Amino acid sequence: MKKNFLVLLLLLGAFCSNAQRNSGAAPYLTKPFGTTSIKEVRAETAGGSISVEGGKTSGLVEVYVEPSNGGLRKKMSDQDIKSVLEQYYDLEVSTSGNVLVAKASRKDRNWSEKTALSISFKIYTGTDVRTDLKTSGGSIRLQGLKGDQFFKTSGGSLLVRDVSGKITGKTSGGSIDVSDAREEIDLATSGGSIKADHLTGRIRLKTSGGSLTLSDLSGNVEARTSGGSITASGIKGDLFTSTSGGSVTLKGIDGNLDASTSGGRIRAELVGTKDFVKLHTSAGGVNVDMPRTDNAQFNLSGSKVNVSQLGNFNGSIEKNRVKGKIGSGKLLVEVTASSGNVDVHM
Questions:
Q1: What is the 3-state secondary structure (H, E, C) of the chain?
Q2: Is 109 exposed, middle or buried (0-12, 13-18, 19+ CB in 10 A)?
Q3: pTM for the structure as a whole
Q4: Do the beta carbons of residue 170 and residue 186 sit within 8 Å?
Q5: Which of 62, 66, 79, 310 matches a 20 to 30 Å C-alpha distance to 49?
Q6: Domain residue extents for the chain
Q7: pLDDT for 17-32, tens place per residue?
Q8: 171-193 pLDDT per residue, tens
Q9: Which long-range CB contacts under 8 A does 167-173 form with residues at least 24 apart?
């Protein structure tokens, strides 16, 4: 049976004082629920953040409300906020079957900065829970969950901790910080940096305006930025990475590697190789350290090319180009620098 818990006149006095609300110490509204029955969380708000934390034995929804206009936060009383909330917003916290709904939306009425509120949700659930989360003006945080997770925000950051499953998240104006996640990870931002640590599986990370910092990743990794530098360490598997405006620094790479930049230098240290090593820059040099190989095909070009210990090499060696192979040429080593030197050390 569906139970709706709407905003009531006396809730404010029961759950918080004005001082507590301004300090963020107490929620405007709380509602408990049973964690064993809830398998899906659907949360949506127009101007606040959303947090879902799993692994709890008892479930709880906390609702936080404050003026969006910072100048009004100390001027508006509890009664003022309650009056604006009831007149201009619809707030719902409900359960139906195994689904929990937490939703805050504006009513179709005229409003101004004086009636703009930030309504945020903090939700504590069990572990095996899938989510569908949306906010147009706040951050999203997920922790301790297993299952499919879909979440997006137009104006906040994404934080993911200890989550497994199909993880799909997007922000149009914030950074991404993800760690201890597994299986299938697809995260994107149009205006922030990405930090990823200790991930396993199929990993796709994309930003249009920030740097990439990657560490301890395993699986198939695609990480791209249109406007920042790339730093990666401890990557095992396939790494495909590119930037249109920064340098690329790679350490402890074990597996296939395809990295490129249109505006910086590439430094790569490989501890293991598989089928190919492809590196390209349009505005800098390339320096590569890799394990010794007796079975590789080389295609190296730059303003000047230096390569060590080729051994039984069959091909041509020139000042700005090295092309040929050792053995049957199983490993493809393709390194190009349009306006810089290429140095390959084995």
A1: CCEECCCCCCHHHHHCCHHHHHHCCCCCEEEEECCCCCCEEEEEECCCCEEEECCCCCEEEEEEEEECCHHHCCCCCHHHHHHHHHHHEEEEEEEECCEEEEEEEECCCCCCHHHCEEEEEEEECCCECEEEEEECCCCEEEEEEECCEEEEECCCCEEEEEEEEEEEEEECCCCEEEEEEEEEEEEEECCCCEEEEEEEEEEEEEECCCCEEEEEEEEEEEEEECCCCEEEEEEEEEEEEEECCCCEEEEEEEEEEEEEECCCCEEEEEEECCCEEEEEECCCCEEEECCCCCCEEEEEECCCEEECCCCCEEEEECCCEEEEEECCCCEEEEEEECCCCEEEEC
A2: exposed
A3: 0.89
A4: no
A5: 79
A6: 1-146, 193-346
A7: 333 333 444 798 999 9
A8: 998 999 999 999 999 999 998 99
A9: 167/142, 169/140, 171/140
- Residue whose structure tokens are 């053995």: 327
